[in-house]
Amino acid sequence: MEIRFLGGTGEVGRSAILVNDSLLLDYGMLTGNPPQFPVDSVDPDAVVVSHGHLDHVGAVPSLLSGDARPPIHWTPPTEELTRTLARDTLKLHGGTYDCPFTETELERVTQVSERHGYREPFEAAGHEVTFFNAGHIPGSAHVLVDDGETRLLYTADFHTGDQRLVAGTTARPDADVVICESTYADVEHDDRATVEERFVESVETTLWEGGSVVVPAFAIGRTQELLLVCAAHDIPCYVDGMGKRVTRMLRQYPAFVRDPDALRRATSHARFVTGRDGQRKRIVDQTAVVVTTSGMLSGGPAMTYIPAIRQHPTNKITMTGYQVEGTPGRELLETGRAEIDGRIMPVSAQVEQYDFSAHADHDGLRSFLESYTDATVLVNHGDDCAGFAEGLRADGIDAAAPELGETLEV
Ligand SMILES: [Zn+2]
Predict the structure, then answer these.
(1) N or C: fewer beta carbons within 10 Å in the chain?
(2) Residue 222 Ramachandran class (φ > 0 left, ψ -120 to 50 alpha, else beta)
(3) How far apart are the CA of 327 and the centre of ligand 1, in A?
(4) Where is the Beta-Casp domain (predicted)?
């Protein structure tokens, strides 16, 4: 089997892996200014997508330019999320070099889409492919690829621990080669129940003191997780931004969430903000919790809520995800100020961070790989892939961290 790495090596973003020069696994983008895309142009016979995050699907519609119509295989939520993200990219960057596709190519996705559930093998570009639940976000999959000689397991993003929205991965299919993510190879997460307890206590304290809490959250996965937390602890909350649409969409696919009834209850527990008639202004004038995009304060209704609550130290901003360097969220955590809508604003409200990660940490990655001590492990999707691979080699595992553009024969 020949494996070519077109992106996502030594970095988190633009994941793209070409197998046997015919089967493409993921085709993402690296957000930033400017965004970056996988290297080389590709003309695959088929495409398999692991899950609906921008760094795995962001450039997928561009594969349908000209006469190219490769089938795209994914789970139903992954297809829906890809469309949502692509529409957002068109809205933000359409017609510029920062958007690698047009409305026309996005519309073609319907013609080539092939949906699959977990553990239902299918054929793609002459390979047998099977999805397994990866426990990262709804619809996320480990991808097993068998070319008749070699079995490749592409873990993509995964979590070994349970979240309220999705249960952790349990599948460990046999494989000769494993391409393993390493986003949090250097991190030990606190136990999820402990993180949740701290979050709930902090939010309840602020409400009791008469303050408002703005909870910036990624639209996909994180928003729903926090709505589930609020419902479970009976914390009244509003939800705003792209997370509203994603929440409604996920309700349509109960097979891909851990507890569909809990998601239904959380959805009716939360109040969906329409934003009409100055509603956002009224919300922050009362004692309230608002779960809203964007998770890193780079856009979305958070741009209205943060300026409205920032001046009062009774209020609180609770970051719930990793803050990439250079984002307003990161700046706020480090300096107590943030550039919101082009204006630098000092923030007197309390700012806190909670680790609601959807990725395995160091121990999670190592426990997953315990099932693959005889396999070749190729480490990608992390800031220090080489360091993690070195640690594996020290323990006798055949491991390497491929470089951008590298082709390996396995
Ligand atoms: Zn992901």
Answers:
(1) C
(2) alpha
(3) 18
(4) 223-332
